[in-house]
Amino acid sequence: MPRELFTVRTPPEALRILLEALGPSEPRREAVETTDALDRVLAEDLHAANDLPDFPRSTMDGYAVRAADTFGAGEGLPAYLEEVGEVLMGRSADVHVGRGQCARIATGGMLPPGADAVIMVEQTQEAGGSTVEVLRPVAPGENLVQVGEDVRAGNLVLTRGHRLRPQDLGGLLALGITQVQVARRLTVGIISGGDEVVAPDQEPGPGQIRDVNSYTLAALVTRAGHRPWLVGVVPDLFERLEAAAREALPRCDVLILSAGSSVSQRDMTADVITGLGKPGVLVHGVSLRPGKPTILAVAANKPVFGLPGNPVSCMVTFDLFVSPTLAHLVSASTPPRQVVTARLERNVASTTGREDYVQVRLERSADGGLVAIPVFGKSNLIYSLIRADGMVKVPLDRGGISAGETVDVVLF
Amino acid sequence: MPRELFTVRTPPEALRILLEALGPSEPRREAVETTDALDRVLAEDLHAANDLPDFPRSTMDGYAVRAADTFGAGEGLPAYLEEVGEVLMGRSADVHVGRGQCARIATGGMLPPGADAVIMVEQTQEAGGSTVEVLRPVAPGENLVQVGEDVRAGNLVLTRGHRLRPQDLGGLLALGITQVQVARRLTVGIISGGDEVVAPDQEPGPGQIRDVNSYTLAALVTRAGHRPWLVGVVPDLFERLEAAAREALPRCDVLILSAGSSVSQRDMTADVITGLGKPGVLVHGVSLRPGKPTILAVAANKPVFGLPGNPVSCMVTFDLFVSPTLAHLVSASTPPRQVVTARLERNVASTTGREDYVQVRLERSADGGLVAIPVFGKSNLIYSLIRADGMVKVPLDRGGISAGETVDVVLF
């Protein structure tokens, strides 16, 4: 019986065991220009140094007024105000609005001293000379953004672990924060094992196949915001695999061994990982399909993964174990995931006590909703992954999911 | 009355008018290494040059057999086979399996000539010498991946317009496709207008604010897979804005003018765009909130956008108009979007005949589902965008959405 079957863990247990062994993480940081920080993970809490806006701004084209002067105004009984000047954009408002007075102002302009509201131009009428008729009352503060209404000086605006989105960059730059501390990208070493595996630019001989997993894994690492390092394809010899792993581990932050799919290859991977250092293999076998023979380990305080050799398992286990571990190491709240909701098109069977991941294609149904159509295929077929749009999880405590049920589809 | 209010279009109409004026697109292509092609858009259909796998592969550790030799076998009445050799990984199977014979094979190994199935090692027993007891029958083809079962030679594997995912790269490399033709990234020029706008590294004077939209837009362009080009901040002078736009247009594929929010700034933007060439402004005003004063135009066969100056409108209109236009220009099927389903926490009011986009925060409810909590804030506040996780659309034909309804939240 293969060793991995002795203590099978549920996927959440397995991940918890790994993350607990790694302990709390203190990511290494680096300073980057805010303009280059898209999708990077903040390594510091950021506070506003000043109010935003730091002057009261009009949100309408119209007239800056004293609200009290407009009380009771209406179409039948307009208020008459004297226009005493204009606020220029991007300038200090150098006109003072006294009682019975108003000043022209455009959207974004600075409220002049004396005024406490803006009346929209559509609610006024020029009455000849410098007189403006006001046809509606405004309340104090109306049509204004107040000082600090967007952010107050001292406010915590973004927290450590946050992944920076386009609007976050805009918001930081609005506050003059032009440089930020972010978690350094992790280097993820990828070793592909197997006597049958050749590089993609080589013509496979009889019984050989081209390397698929290394490149899929590398792209998954890139998409997670980190740096893949393809160590290379290593033949199925303990000494060769061990040498490659020993040499790679000090030079990366995370190591993935993507071994072949046979029991002997898997056992060899486990032995190699055990030899890398303490505590070594923590989980060997997960109640998961596909992906059961997954190895989770820690050596030299670094996570080491032995992922199953077939492409579908490789992708499922990356998503379940590697991706959250990478997020943990940089203290990011959650890995980015795309999820859509769909109606399952047909029954999917599973076994209670095991998490199943079923590949699905998505189609629009007549009512505009999404339908998830299972793509059945052996998990050693790469093209079943390509024909699919995402995966549906059958939870541990379910024996299957019935046609018509609403499911979450994790897109890939 | 501002000119934009004369012919207001619905958002779908507005986009259709723009895309029709652009006509069918023939993206410029470039060749890239498949390993560097993550998230790029294919500019060619790709076919398999050979079968995958191109030899029958075992999916189990066990013995290659003639299925007929195992018919009727059981625990009580095993079939006895003679082990005549072993298939080595990555080698041609040089052993022949005759009647009553078997050969050791590991997962991924090549089925030897003569054999037509594999029996799992768990369903056999060594009986001394070279004799193997088979305790269960197998059907022909069992525990095998057949030649071409993953992909057949000549099959269309990926189509033009497809955005390449990690598994696609793996699948292409498995077929030896190491280079692909992809659509060239588009250069998107971004001009920011406004006398009140200063660069983020400058200290704003009285009445001034730092540029927010240029950098948010640049990051949105990057995220869409294209190349932003920040032309710069231009003051509110027709001649200056016109000169900047005229100079930028020939040097980019798409031009965005992110003008100020006042009517005079918007009208100036429209006039500048009109002067860039035929057909000029196609849409000026969309039944949309926020984002009504959007300008969609074509000049020199290139899309030109006049986006509203406030940050929330800017982001909504990028998503509704710029993003699908970029996808159209590179013939990509759809821009990638992240959507989750949630229950709306409170009533949201709108007006029939107008599409509203409401910013929401997401929280997990006690039952594990997501709750969308509207973040009410003026659309000129950048931090309301930062506090939100996504947007909910109130469709054209709805006067609002009630608390408790299920809504799609487009994450940003």
Q: Which two chains form the greatest contact, residue counts included?
A: A-B, 92 and 93 residues
The CATH class of the largest domain in chain A is Alpha Beta
What multimeric state do the chains show? homodimer
The number of E-state strands of chain A comes to: 28
Gross morphology of chain A is: elongated
Which consecutive residue ranges of chain A, at least 5 long each, have pLDDT under 50? Answer: none
Strand order in the sheet with the most strands of chain A:
7-4-6-5-9-8
Count of individual helical segments of chain A? 7
Q: Any idea what the CATH superfamily of the largest domain in chain A is called?
A: MoaB/Mog-like domain
Query: What fold name stands as the CATH topology of the largest domain in chain A?
Result: Molybdenum Cofactor Biosythetic Enzyme, Chain A
Work out the helicity level of chain A. Answer: 10-25%
Task: Describe this structure as you would to a colleague.
The structure is a homodimer of 412-residue chains. The first copy, chain A, is of the alpha/beta class. Chain A folds into 4 domains: 3-28 and 185-329, MoaB/Mog-like domain (Molybdenum Cofactor Biosythetic Enzyme, Chain A), CATH 3.40.980.10; 35-51 and 152-183, Molybdopterin biosynthesis moea protein, domain 2, CATH 3.90.105; 57-145, Beta Complex (Molybdopterin biosynthesis moeA protein, domain 3); 338-411, Beta Barrel (Beta-clip), CATH 2.40.340.10. In chain A, 19% of the residues lie in helices and 31% in strands. Chain A has 7 helices and 28 strands. Chain A has helices spanning 11-22, 166-174, 213-223, 238-248, 263-274, 311-329, 382-387; strands spanning 29-33, 46-47, 57-58, 62-65, 79-86, 101-105, 117-120, 124-126, 131-134, 144-145, 156-158, 179-183, 187-193, 197-198, 209-210, 227-234, 254-258, 279-284, 288-289, 295-299, 302-307, 338-344, 348-349, 355-364, 370-374, 390-394, 400-401, 406-411. In chain A, the strands form 8 sheets. Chain A has a 6-stranded mixed β-sheet, with no helix packed on it. In chain A, α4 packs across α5. Chain A starts with 10 loop residues before the first helix and ends with a strand. The mean pLDDT of chain A is 93. Chains A and B meet through α2, β15, α3, α5 and β22 of A and α2, β15, α3, α5 and β22 of B.
